[in-house]
Design a protein that fits this description.
mainly alpha; Arp2/3 complex 21 kDa subunit ARPC3; two-stranded antiparallel sheet; 69% helix; Substrate-specific component PdxU2 of predicted pyridoxin-related protein ECF transporter; membrane
């Protein structure tokens, strides 16, 4: 397995900030319109792009990962017609934001050697943070009387955790290579 690193410099954080906002918008749009596999028709789709917040967090920094997850959730819920102010802005937004924040705190491309072990650790972190997110979001949905708790845990777990477990470790090395080629001088993570 190759080990890739991404150089960092002390420059501006404008690039990762802007890219995290663009990634958040793309995440929301992809979650709303590019999830063809229905787990519960019309209600829960298999979010094949659930890996975007953790991937953005690892590549661009923990704040960027949080922005991607939080704003992506808001964009998705508005586009999908599922926006519930207390749930979307507080529980769902924050918990999905944490799926980008935690991996971004734990893995820095400038200091992490992305070998087989690191990829397994990324998958383990995605599993743990995914379980926490799904539990909190399911509790919120149950509290609001929208879905029964265990029903939500099952389907949201399949919807979000599986793509994070597969997509994040699979795409981190190619994404680092792309960023390193585009920014050979590096950039400051945000």
């Amino acid at each position: 397995m190759t080990s890739e690193t991404l150089p960092q410099n002390s420059g501006s954080t404008l690039f990762p900030l802007v890219l995290s906002i663009v990634a958040a918008a793309a995440t929301g749009v992809l979650w709303a319109y590019a999830n063809p596999i229905q787990l519960v028709p019309g209600v829960i789709q298999w979010r094949i792009f659930a890996f975007l917040p953790p991937l953005v967090g690892i590549l661009l920094g923990w704040k960027s990962g949080f922005i991607c997850g939080y704003l992506g959730t808001i964009v998705w819920s508005l586009l999908a017609g599922t926006f519930i102010p207390a749930h979307s802005l507080i529980v769902d937004g924050i918990m999905v934001g944490l799926t980008g924040l935690v991996p971004g705190l734990m893995f820095n491309p400038a200091t992490t050697k992305f070998d087989q072990g690191a990829l397994m650790r990324i998958a383990a972190v995605c599993l743990v943070v995914g379980l926490v997110m799904v539990t909190a979001v399911s509790a919120s949905l149950a509290f609001l009387g929208i879905f029964p708790f265990w029903w939500a845990v099952l389907y949201l777990g399949l919807s979000d955790i599986v793509p994070m477990l597969i997509g994040t470790p699979l795409l981190v090395i190619p994404a680092i290579r792309i960023l390193a080629a585009a920014h050979p001088q590096g950039f400051k993570r945000f």
